[in-house]
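User: Here's a structure from my thesis project, written as structure tokens. My advisor, Dr. K., wants to see whether a designed sequence matches the one we expressed. Can you design one independently, without my sequence as a hint?
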């Protein structure tokens, strides 16, 4: 691999995203000086600069580009996309369309720091989640199972679907009986829901304000 060209492509994409070298390194699981150290070692004559395919792949994911393009300049530097599964509300019921398996719904460009594999987005509808989330914002999540409520979602903000097929974004807490859950509103004035049976729930991995979303 040509580390000089890789570093040039990293800089090109990083500047498009207005992302600093330190932020890119940290979001890619490196020390804050990781990218800078690559550059310094390459300029000092180390052809590979201490980089490997695994670390470069993580940088590609953070930058939202293909590993093939970052490594070899092959193909276009198009950002991968993530499916928008549907819409969710907090105060009023909103039917949820779950495109987790098919992935054939509308798409949004993959945000920096989130890989496209197994990740889905939903769009917030209405103003019932203010001030935490606003109408048009996108919430990204991944599912551990098609119909399950994993133990690790309890206590966190989640995208979830109830037994009636309605989608919500709430804080999920354990209910009064096994299999039931309390759904706590993100809006202090909103209504909580008690002892709800859920089809599935998934923690919100990333919140992207509407003005940053590039839909396709």
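Assistant: Designed independently from the structure alone:
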């Amino acid at each position: 691999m040509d580390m000089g060209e890789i570093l040039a492509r990293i800089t090109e994409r990083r500047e498009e995203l207005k992302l600093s070298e330190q932020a890119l390194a940290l979001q890619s699981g490196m020390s804050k000086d990781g990218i800078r150290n690559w550059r310094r070692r390459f300029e000092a004559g180390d052809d590979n600069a201490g980089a490997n395919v695994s670390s470069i792949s993580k940088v590609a994911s953070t930058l939202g580009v293909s590993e093939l393009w970052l490594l070899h300049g092959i193909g276009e530097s198009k950002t991968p996309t993530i499916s928008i599964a549907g819409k969710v509300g907090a105060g009023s019921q909103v039917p949820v369309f779950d495109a987790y398996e098919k992935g054939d719904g509308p798409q949004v460009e993959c945000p920096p720091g989130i890989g496209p594999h197994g990740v889905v987005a939903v769009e917030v509808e209405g103003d019932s989640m203010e001030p935490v989330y606003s109408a048009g914002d996108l919430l990204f999540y991944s599912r551990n199972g098609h119909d399950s409520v994993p133990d690790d979602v309890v206590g966190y903000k989640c995208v979830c679907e109830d037994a009636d097929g309605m989608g919500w974004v709430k804080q999920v807490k354990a209910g009064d009986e096994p299999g039931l859950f309390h759904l706590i509103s993100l809006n202090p004035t909103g209504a909580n829901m008690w002892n709800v049976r859920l089809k599935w729930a998934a923690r919100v991995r990333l919140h992207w304000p509407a003005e940053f979303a590039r839909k396709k």
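When you compare it with your expressed construct, this may help: The mean pLDDT is 83.
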